[in-house]
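Lecture notes, part 5. Sequence design as translation. It can be helpful to think of inverse folding as translation between two languages: the language of shapes and the language of residues. The source text, in structure tokens, appears below.
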């Protein structure tokens, strides 16, 4: 069983920065794909960024490209989402997730393990 614990959410003003962390209970090198998603009330969960272990290949949603960076620290079994130049539309609950297969993956269900979520609120 893989447990993921997120931290780093909070409230910031537009233009500010936050770094989200996702600490795994197992070696993240055993997780093929690590990703961040976000969700606002009444809408579906959307992918924000993902990284494949080994190759380090990354993908970002167009809405965050150039502002967010996903990274991993294998020694700490933790991966991160650095969020810069935050905008009010980035306000959401952010979730980390991992999969046993490499991304891209077509379904949310392909990600077998999820964190509990951390709230990010950006005020204008």
């Amino acid at each position: 069983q893989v447990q993921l614990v997120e931290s780093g959410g909070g409230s910031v003003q537009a233009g500010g920065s936050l770094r989200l962390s996702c600490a795994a209970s197992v070696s993240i090198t055993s997780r093929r794909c690590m990703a961040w998603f976000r969700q606002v009330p009444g809408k579906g969960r959307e992918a924000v960024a993902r990284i494949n272990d080994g190759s380090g290949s990354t993908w970002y949603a167009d809405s965050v490209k150039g502002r967010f960076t996903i990274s991993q620290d294998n020694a700490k079994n933790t991966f991160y989402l650095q969020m810069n130049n935050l905008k009010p539309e980035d306000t959401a609950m952010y979730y980390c997730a991992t999969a046993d297969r490499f991304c891209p993956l077509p379904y949310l269900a392909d990600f077998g393990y999820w964190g509990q979520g951390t709230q990010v609120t950006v005020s204008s």
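The translated text above is only one of many valid answers, since several sequences can fold into similar shapes. The mean pLDDT is 95.
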